[in-house]
Amino acid sequence: MSELLHGINPVAEALASTARQPLELILPCGRLAPRLSELNQQAKARKIPVRLLERAEIDRLAGHNHHQQVLLRLPPFIYTEFDQLLKQWRASGRPAFLLLLDGITDPHNFGAILRSAEVAGCQGVIVAKDRSCPVTPVVEKTAAGALSHLPLCQVTNLARSLEDLKSAGIWCYGLAGDADSTPLFTTRLVGDLALVVGSEGKGLRPNIRKHCDALLAIPMQGQLGSLNASVAAAIALFEVCGKTSPPGRLCQNNPAHRQFSTRFF
Questions:
Q1: CA-wise closest residue to 71 among 37, 27, 39
Q2: Across 19-28, 103-112, 241-250, least confident range
Q3: CA distance linking residue 260 with residue 265, whole number of Å
């Protein structure tokens, strides 16, 4: 079943990507705004069909989404196989930098996490088939084109995948707010590693915690005891990335600062 992507920037990224061949671009009838005209040219350059519809019809197709008068029909999203993700990492010659999501169900959080992961240089994201948000147009719009560049892998058993990563020499760190968790900013995050982020409500499931090599906590100084899951993920991702890492490379060392709880909402 095809999907309808909406929004100028996500559509532009999808048109520029070769990951999925768009089925058609939908634009309004009449004179096009400059940005929409650029999308029209992009589509024609790739020989993607363009359909012109009345604005009311575009509104109907988009539902309640803020579509900016442009829709892109895409084939169903194809997930990267787990073995292929590991193969791509080994071929890259870079230290492993992966992200696993345990039970993220909100599409806006999911999309925001994917966007942060891509910008931080993460090599792939792994989610479970059950108890996780699928890739939807809302996810793709919030991710702002990240899925055109970031491999996303869907697995049946997240705990087993953690064990497979560990067997491959990848150290797996779970974000948790336990009192005995190690502060994120005092941990020397180097070498091959994966971060594991839990759900918006309960964080990491007990079984997933058991399969992590270590649990990390993000320090907090205010009165609130929790962070949004996408914010927590971004903090951890960029702690690995490092503020001074050269373009295209990971920071191999990052000094420590504070301390925190990862109960998500």
A1: 27
A2: 241-250
A3: 15
Are 8 and 122 in the same domain? no
DSSP assignment string, 108-174: HHHHHHHHHHHHTT--EEEEESSSSPPP-HHHHHHHTTGGGTS-EEEES-HHHHHHHHHHTT-EEEE
Tell me how many helices (H) and strands (E) the chain has. 9, 11
CA angle 242, 260, 214 (to 5 degrees): 70
Residue 234 has pLDDT above 70, yes or no: yes
Say if residue 229 is in the same domain as residue 121.
yes
**Same domain for 118 and 41:** no
CA–CA dist 50, 228 (Å, integer)? 39
- Map residue 83 onto helix, strand or coil: helix
d(CA 82, CA 88) in angstroms, rounded, equals 10
How many domains is the chain built from? 2
Residue 223 has a pLDDT of: 62
Residue 255 host element (H or E):
none
The pTM assigned to this predicted structure is 0.79
In whole angstroms, what is the distance from residue 45 CA to residue 106 CA? Answer: 35
Could you tell me if 34 and 145 lie in one domain? no
Please choose, from the candidates 13, 246, 249, 253, the residue with its C-alpha nearest in 3D space to the C-alpha of residue 121.
249
In the chain, which residue ranges form alpha helices assigned H by DSSP? Answer: 8-16, 34-45, 55-62, 82-92, 107-119, 137-143, 158-167, 206-210, 229-241
Q: Which domain holds residue 42?
A: 3-74
Mean pLDDT of 126-155: 90
Q: 230: domain CATH number? A: 3.40.1280.10
Compute the average pLDDT of residues 223-236.
84
